[in-house]
Model the fold of this input.
Amino acid sequence: MCKARDWIKTALSHKEPKAVPYYFDFTPPSRLNIEEYYGSPIEEVLEFPIRMQGCKTIKPLYANPSDFGKTAEDEFGVIWSTSKIDRGAPIASPLSDADISNYTFPDFAASYRFEDLGNWCKQNKEYYTIIWVGDLWERATFMRGMENILMDLVLNPKFVAKLLHAIADYVIGTMKILFDRFEFDCIAISDDYGAQNSMLMSPADWRKFIKPHLADIYKFAKDHGRTVFQHSDGYIYPVIGDMIDMGCDILHPIQPEAMDISKLKREFGKDLTFCGGINTQYLLPQGTPKEIRSEVKKLKQELGSGGGYIVSNGITIQSDVPLDNIIAMIDEALKKD
Done:
């Protein structure tokens, strides 16, 4: 077993490593900016102990208008705006009615989805490898539209249940192929449940509609020897205990703008590893390098105590973050003291 993987596994086992591990992600303009300073690829230059990848898609996360035009359609029939600086936004959804009887899901086994993953896994075997396997609730919001799906929770609950069941089947089908073909450490689910100050739905609805399918996804991963990395922006405090009970290992990105992350450490730190915590809405774009260094140092001391912490940005680092502030964050995160 290699050093980088050991480093992450030590943190996951809630043993305090010699240094707090780190991981950062960037939008394309921000990545270009920081790689002009440090070198490229940034993961190699700064020796990130975690490496992340996902299945290939016909509409990548960051679809540049120069490559795709003003809009791009994904496998599920969702139309997205394109952008040079971020992921764009879903602007047209394939499910205009609360009915999936005439909708055909894309083929989770399509060969292009798994191209190059074998090489990627081999090239990164010395690191802790995480593969994004899909989304659940977030995919439903793209396919139906956020306002519609939230209304459907009340007006069309059977439709919501059927849609989420079908999406979960797609994710588990993807996982079956991944587990059969590739060696890697962890699956990642991208599924936002929180707004800034509250959940997007009641905790009761989350437990009714989402939890059973999320539990199936977690269990399938655990049964195949993989850990679980759960992403959800925003305030999700009421359901964190549920995630732990289901088997979540790593929670990301624990936005300090939305939750008291010191409280999360006190309450859930013995059972959960946190990844994130650096204020990306205000501190990184508007703070000084000195303030950023101080905050990163504080997070490493408080959240890193006893293991169970990976220092990282609260949301993807955007183009509005000054280069000096990114450098301050990275340099402080990489300090061994």
User: Anything to note?
Assistant: The domain at 3-61+105-334 is CATH 3.20.20.210 (TIM Barrel). Residues 157-181 form the longest helix (25 residues). The radius of gyration is 19 Å.
